[in-house]
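Why does this matter for the project? Reviewers at the last site visit asked to see concrete outputs rather than summary tables. In response, this paragraph embeds two records directly. Each consists of the residue sequence and, immediately after it, the corresponding structure tokens. Nothing has been edited or filtered.
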Amino acid sequence: MQQCIEKLFKAELMRLKLPVPKTHNLRELSDLLHQADDRWIAETMTLNRLSLAAVDFRYPDPSEPELEIDLEFILQIASELRKLLLDRLGSCR
């Protein structure tokens, strides 16, 4: 889910003919999009939760207690961001 949103951010930056950084940080990508279009707003906490869920799931820290991830909530976040970004990209279809 995180990678899908990351690629959609990068596609939108490319559509706007902006530089696309080599990063997986959703907040950073969202900030770049906001700089180009101040109508774009995504909550930092939402972006961070999506990123953390991806990292914690793939790279659990054995010294930390296992975090419970609310997959339904993460899916909802990803679905909403995906729709917003696809709507923006719709003009290039």
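We now turn to the second protein, recorded in exactly the same manner.
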Amino acid sequence: MADEKQPNQHAKRTFLVVVDESEELNKALLYACRRAENNNGDVALLFVIDQVEFQSWLSVGELMRAEQREAAETKVNVVAQLVKERIGREPKIIIREGVPVDQVLQVLDEDRSITTLVLGAASDKEGPGPLVTQLTGLLIGKLRVPVIIVPGTLSDDQIVTIT
């Protein structure tokens, strides 16, 4: 008798990529798209808008929030078009406001269809990036999915080869 708690081995895999302005986004996106394509899976895109707090100037805060939302939608739609071109399917788009690491954890907790988090690591001397640093440090135990970290030093050809 099958254990009802076991995941369906044939369930579609969804790879979550955090969309931002970093160069390593392209590496993570290529990796996620290749894996989704090869596994008949999907890609989900998360864009986190910085929280705007203008309590004394509510109208200014609302205007800033609306501008940030518009910029986020523009950026994520460009990335979504790349995903569609690569895998032939629309990605799931998630736009949140807040602290990026908190929002990643919340999305993973809420959306059980996401099976893998794919992050790109910066290759400069500053370190891999704040999200990679936070999620591979003390917060790693809070994740319910595997994390794939794609080094920024990999070429696109190398990513294609390993996926």
